[in-house]
Amino acid sequence: MHWQKDAQCGQARAGWLHTRHGSVPTPTFMPVGTVGTVKGITMDNVRATGAGIVLGNTYHLMLRPTAERVQRLGGLHRMMDWPGPILTDSGGFQVMSLGPLRKMDEDGVTFRSHIDGSSHRLTPESSTDIQYKLDATITMAFDECPALPATKDVLEASMERSMRWAARSREAFIARPGYGQFGIVQGGTEQDLRERSALALRKIGFEGYAIGGLAVGEGQELMFSTLDYTTPMLPEDQPRYLMGVGTPDDLLGAVMRGCDMFDCVMPSRAGRTARAYTERGTLNLRNARFAEDTRPISPEDDSPMAGRYSRAYLHHLFRANEMLGPMLLTLHNLAYYQRLMRQIRAAIVAGTLEQTAAELRQNWAKGDWSEDEWPMPRYQQG
Amino acid sequence: MHWQKDAQCGQARAGWLHTRHGSVPTPTFMPVGTVGTVKGITMDNVRATGAGIVLGNTYHLMLRPTAERVQRLGGLHRMMDWPGPILTDSGGFQVMSLGPLRKMDEDGVTFRSHIDGSSHRLTPESSTDIQYKLDATITMAFDECPALPATKDVLEASMERSMRWAARSREAFIARPGYGQFGIVQGGTEQDLRERSALALRKIGFEGYAIGGLAVGEGQELMFSTLDYTTPMLPEDQPRYLMGVGTPDDLLGAVMRGCDMFDCVMPSRAGRTARAYTERGTLNLRNARFAEDTRPISPEDDSPMAGRYSRAYLHHLFRANEMLGPMLLTLHNLAYYQRLMRQIRAAIVAGTLEQTAAELRQNWAKGDWSEDEWPMPRYQQG
């Protein structure tokens, strides 16, 4: 695995991530394929949105269908019919969020399955082994991710344990050409802890570095200020992945602070609940004002559904609880996220990111296109 | 609208249905797009299965989003992004099945919406007008469809009312080039009633003739024997549509008795509940025996998903309640139905339908392919 930088604009970087399973332009947004499927969309359509890499969840996959079964089925790529790169998380973050269902010790975490209550254990070694069995292109180090706000003592102890776990994860990782493993910087919103964490990880040495423990309730301002000092601690020539982020505005701000990779359930989850992302902010398509709106969601859509479905039709599908509503809107939202990343990347290459960012933010704030602003002719029956 | 016969084999006919919205080879199976969407599948994929014409439900569409709104959105074709022909039912059958929620009189039916309890009325005139507003390529006459078994008196009175309603439906129909209207033969399983019904309809004159009031609980044997005497009562040079039918074996038997068009929710509904149609009968993909079955559903699949997804993956998707399970299996089942119709049509043209029918039935009875019979190599991870 190798990341190559094409251009830089301020802190923002445009590059290519080359892997065993293909190359991906960065910055890149990774749709979340929790349990071996991106909910509500075929992998053909995920590809058609322009996505180059998707994410899988170790926690979900180890429970069902189990890592061993995925391996026997030929790995995650073969199983879900996605030949491109796949990044899997380590399970650490999701096990954390089980609350009273999990017990942590120095060696790892014991937890109960949310499906059937059965007992399971994750350690740096077993998490790495599971990701190997899934055939993850990018394996994540197993870490502990404390909820914010937390006292500095708690953050420090947690970060130090995560660094010991990172070393054990690296030890357990089986290097293969075109595959890689990322370490995860922890330390909450404490600069000195982030510094120590980044140093510890660089000393171990990974193919890329993730920033964890953010977007867990601290707010965008604190997230951005943490990124401001954290990304410069990471190697210039390797990819940086901001985990679990975020809104279009979060992504833009994080790219401008030097992050290259992102994942979030937001666009797909919103798609299942009638919320559409557009160049003009979000629209709730269940809203009565869309009942006879013959316009497509966005005039700038260039996805496979561009110009084909009216807002009124989508409104109808959601009102009638038809599966096609979530299916189409998931496609739309993932396509919007990919379009945004392409736009940002082009601006980095052109050296005009500041200007593009100002325009993007201005348009998000404007709200839905008025009739006068709508740039396409509107056809009616007749 | 015009139906052209290409070949005949026994009673079975191969032809083309030419319409304003394109031409469709017959015999043809019409996927059911209840409320402006075939559940769980995009119209692109409906087309990719080989389907040439789809069905819409007047009852569902008049309630939501309403015929007037569909008209304002440019008609059903534009609204659902299906440029091909659409047949709409008249609402009569579905209103019937509302039971105590409906009240029938000579002029029409008053009923309460299953959605919000609001009161609505359907008459031959309003049903025909609704189908006009939906822009149906093929409009169905409004009829009454009694449940079987029923006394002959009940069947006779109902059939006679349906024939009066058929005349009123024809009167209300606005003829347009490439559009058409079908009358519906009623009379239950009584030969003389079917005879009188067919004569009455032919006297009115339609672009095609449907056989209604079957597949309502009478069993396949009685359905077939009714078809045996009913199809010869219908014009040789016009299409015949057997409504609401059925299993692959039902379709085969009905084609061999001279029917050309079919619709049924079976393949799409089965797809949502993990039941797969194959050349070897049906498989329930939730069954544990598929958990590690790396074979695709059928080696004869030629749909867009052919060879891409293992039974084990589909099993996993259904067990995990992932939307992609119903999505993929709906596609698979609709593709199987279309493949079956193509196979039957080719056999009619080749004059070998009897032999093909025997082979099809023999294979359905065999059950799932054994390992030895499986005609494709099986690859495992290596």
Automatic annotation (TrEMBL), chains A, B:
Its EC number is 2.4.2.29. InterPro entries: ArchSynthase1/Queuine_TRR, TGT, TGT-like_sf, tRNA_ribo_trans-like. GO terms for cellular component: cytosol. It catalyses: 7-aminomethyl-7-carbaguanine + guanosine(34) in tRNA = 7-aminomethyl-7-carbaguanosine(34) in tRNA + guanine. One of its GO terms (molecular function) is tRNA-guanosine(34) queuine transglycosylase activity. It comes from the Bacteria. Residues 11-365 form the tRNA-guanine(15) transglycosylase-like domain. Pathway: tRNA modification; tRNA-queuosine biosynthesis. It is an enzyme of class 2 (transferase). Substrate binds at D89, S90, G91, G92, F93, D143, Q186, G213. Keywords: Glycosyltransferase, Queuosine biosynthesis, Transferase, tRNA processing. One of its GO terms (biological process) is tRNA queuosine(34) biosynthetic process. Residues 244-250 are annotated as: RNA binding. The active site is at D89 (proton acceptor), D263 (nucleophile). Gene3D superfamilies: Queuine tRNA-ribosyltransferase-like (3.20.20.105). Belongs to the queuine tRNA-ribosyltransferase family. Homodimer. Within each dimer, one monomer is responsible for RNA recognition and catalysis, while the other monomer binds to the replacement base PreQ1. Catalyzes the base-exchange of a guanine (G) residue with the queuine precursor 7-aminomethyl-7-deazaguanine (PreQ1) at position 34 (anticodon wobble position) in tRNAs with GU(N) anticodons (tRNA-Asp, -Asn, -His and -Tyr). Catalysis occurs through a double-displacement mechanism. The nucleophile active site attacks the C1' of nucleotide 34 to detach the guanine base from the RNA, forming a covalent enzyme-RNA intermediate. The proton acceptor active site deprotonates the incoming PreQ1, allowing a nucleophilic attack on the C1' of the ribose to form the product. This is Queuine tRNA-ribosyltransferase. The lineage of its organism: Bacteria, Pseudomonadati, Pseudomonadota, Alphaproteobacteria, Acetobacterales.
